[in-house]
Specification:
With 119 residues, the protein is mainly β. It contains one helix and eleven strands; from the N terminus they run αβββββββββββ.
Length: 119
């Protein structure tokens, strides 16, 4: 899975689970603050990846990343989620605690941590 997809998933999961606006994401693996914003209204996600000048949108079942022209699925169960990135045929699982998202990328065989900044 691509690093920007992991960050997009982390922001989306947080927005869906807590129904709070995400104003940014810190990727602990790269040490970078990413320009990713996300918001959920009803069951509909609206997001913006400023680093890639692109939008992402959808529902948990189908999140569309316009820059990659690809879909990511997400199944949410409490503060856990899992899904599939169709662009790279990669599965993932994640857990959210407070403002931290821990994502396991099955294709990389590794955990990735993201701090979420909220509005």
């Amino acid at each position: 899975m691509l690093p920007h997809t992991r960050a997009l998933i982390a922001a989306s999961a947080f927005a869906f689970m807590f129904e709070r606006k995400v104003a940014g994401v810190h990727d602990h693996a790269s040490g970078r603050d990413l320009l990713i914003a996300a918001e959920v209204r009803g069951n509909r996600l609206q997001g913006r990846d400023g680093d890639r000048s692109s939008n992402f949108t959808g529902t948990p079942a189908e999140i569309y990343d316009a820059a990659d022209n690809a879909f990511v699925s997400m199944k949410i169960e409490g503060r856990n989620a899992s899904g599939f990135d169709r662009a790279t045929s990669s599965h993932y699982s994640l857990t959210v605690t407070d403002q931290m998202v821990q994502l396991y990328d099955h294709s990389a065989g590794a955990w990735f941590a993201f701090s979420v900044q909220v509005v």
